[in-house]
Amino acid sequence: MIVAVLVLAYLLGSLSFAVLVSRVMGLPDPRSHGSGNPGATNMLRTGRKSAAVMTLLGDMAKGWVAVWLAAYAVTRFGLPHELVYGAALAVFLGHLYPVFFGFKGGKGVATAVGVLFALSPMLGLVCVLTWATVFAVTRISSLAALVASLVAPVFAYFMMDNAAVAALAVLTVLIFWRHRANIVRLLAGQEGGFKKKSS
């Protein structure tokens, strides 16, 4: 049962909504244009905000559903509580390395948000507010995501158990790894951002 839950979480994570939405809407494959990342931010570069929104919601939803299902299995079948955190990491790894799309996935920010809200709505809210604050000041999505992921295990230390802190620390390391090119550009002052709309 434990293996089944983890495999299901990974398979849910492997559903790349950026690719699926692009195919349904007749848009270019997000892996072949812009940043090459199959995520909501790159979907904005198609000029279709609706596609970006659907991608964002889909990637968040799969993270939430995977953790919710694991929590249900823990309660229903008396499985170890740590399985919830295992499912959180499994769905995240599925997004990063999707079996359905040649193991070439996104950077995991939206899926991580879904995971956080499923683990703790308060923790999810704190991290989203952190992201929004950094983005409002810098207009750089990658920097906002890195800061928000960094504070997640810190806030979890005060809100949740040690297993949650450890799982979120691993998630943070994975997010930083997937953003390594962005980090290089940030350090060089070359990372692009979103311009503020003129009033």
UniProtKB/TrEMBL annotation:
Cited Pfam families: G3P_acyltransf
Statement: the UniProt record of this protein carries the keyword Cell membrane: yes
The reaction(s) this protein catalyses: an acyl phosphate + sn-glycerol 3-phosphate = a 1-acyl-sn-glycero-3-phosphate + phosphate
Assigned keywords, A-Z: Acyltransferase, Cell membrane, Lipid biosynthesis, Lipid metabolism, Membrane, Phospholipid biosynthesis, Phospholipid metabolism, Transferase, Transmembrane, Transmembrane helix
EC number, UniProt record: 2.3.1.275
Keyword Transmembrane helix assigned: yes
Biological processes, Gene Ontology terms: phospholipid biosynthetic process
An annotated Gene Ontology molecular function: acyl-phosphate glycerol-3-phosphate acyltransferase activity
Record field: transmembrane: 50-71, 83-103, 109-131, 166-188
First-tier enzyme category under EC: transferase
Domain of life of the organism encoding this protein: Bacteria
Main location per the UniProt record: membrane
Gene Ontology cellular-component annotations: plasma membrane
Membrane topology: Multi-pass membrane protein
Family as reported in the entry's similarity comment: Belongs to the PlsY family.
Known partners and oligomeric status: Probably interacts with PlsX.
Protein function: Catalyzes the transfer of an acyl group from acyl-phosphate (acyl-PO(4)) to glycerol-3-phosphate (G3P) to form lysophosphatidic acid (LPA). This enzyme utilizes acyl-phosphate as fatty acyl donor, but not acyl-CoA or acyl-ACP.
Protein name: Glycerol-3-phosphate acyltransferase
Organism, scientific name: Sulfuriferula nivalis
